Amino acid sequence: MRTRLPLIFIFITLMIDAMGIGLVIPVMPSLIREIEGGTIAQAALWGGIFATAYAGMQFLCGPLLGTLSDQYGRRPILLITLSVMALDYIIVALAGNIWVLLAARIMGGIASSTRSVATAFIADISTPEQKAARFGLVGAAFGLGFVAGPLLGGVLAEFGTRAPFWAAASLALANMILGVIVLPETVTDSIRRKFHWKRANPLGALLDLGRQERVGRLTFLFFLYQTAFFVYPAIWAYFAEERFGWGPRSIGLSLGLFGISLAVVQGALIRLVLKYLGDRRTVLWGIVFNGVAFLALGLVTSGTVALILTPLAALGAVVIPALQAMMSRAIPDNSQGGLQGLLTSAGALAMIVSPLIMSNIFWLATAETTPFYLPGAPFLLSMVLMGVCVWVFLSRKRMTS
Hints:
Helices cover 79% and strands 0% of the residues. The protein is an all-alpha fold. The protein is globular, with a radius of gyration of 20 Å. The two termini are 29 Å apart.
């Protein structure tokens, strides 16, 4: 119970972080027009600004919060940011000005950067053999948040555009209270590391950790993999409508199926995979499996086949927790927060880069003037990126798995 309750708290925290993106998807167009007026196209421009600001703050603040937690502890950082997150949702629920809404999304991006602190907490309480499986909880929480966010936003929007944010504020506040009760401090004097600004920014964190066991190369691999994998949230809705003629309901159900599959793979199935393959082979074969899945999705023309492929495509998600475990074991215990902050920034940067690249590839491959019509082109690009990931992984110095 001493470990289980804190892990439940961490799981809920990570799920709330993931919900922060999906929650706004169903209601943000209506909320922006309610506040600012204008057309749906103008609302989409503001929505893009909000999404970039949110991911940008995660990119900048992941190492900051992780490094702060290396000195001041995981517990205060997690509890403070949950309080800020609850306040952020309340501000969004009350916002009557577009600039207040933008400020709230910036605040939300900062507060949701706690993924670095939460995963550092998992590293603190886990043995080397437990780390990969427990890092799978991070992906499972993301998968459930990926499902719960749009679902919660869509259902509660029936009660008004502000209702989802009041619910999210209540959830964040309730989880903070749970943390006050059950969350222990895991940073002891033996692993405490003094805060330094050099390690508290993405570039500084990369330079600091990159000197240790080729962590920089693995971080680049992490970024490439996430850029390819984010093709799903970046392009799936547009791809499914163009290729299969699906409407919002079918698209939502398919995304829900993908999110649930992701949670099952990273929350449960990964333990079995790691038992038989180990970290190194799990990363390698997971990347290869992803490449095959992206090839299939890039060429598929049947919606039924695409639905069958959806849970199969999620099987490749074993890569990230296995990769995190390898990197976590390669650095000292007093650098865990900094490492997880660096990975949070790498993931946030991928969330910024991937939609820009994938949406432009999709536009080029489906425009009326295109000489070669291929809606699945973004998935084929992701397949190519998987090939690059294999090259990066095999070219590095062998690490203990």
